[in-house]
Amino acid sequence: DVQLVESGGGSVQAGGSLRLSCKVSGDTSRYSLAWFRQAPGKEREGIAVLRAHGSTTYADSVKGRFTISRDSAKNTLYLQMNGLKPEDTAVYHCVRDLGGGNWYWGQGTQVTVS
After folding, report:
1. Which of 4, 21, 18, 49 is nearest to 112 (CA)?
2. Residues 84 and 16 sit within 8 Å (Cβ to Cβ)
């Protein structure tokens, strides 16, 4: 079974930092992983993807502030978030590529920036 368990969310003041973690079942280096977020009343936004071969892509809204990475030994995906802004407030989800255009979503962790 696929399992994704996020942690590390919380409340922080603008300009602060948080690091989100996602414990992944299986080898994180075998498939693409991503972070999405959803704020109240807004559509889901894909903010960072880390492909199996190591390349990354970021949404313009977070480029230069957020960094996606993985620790394959720990089967864990990370999102380092610096320079947080109030508009970054959202539920952040870890997402795994299942292939065939399908993705598996974790339950999410709340990030609040004031």
Report:
1. 18
2. yes
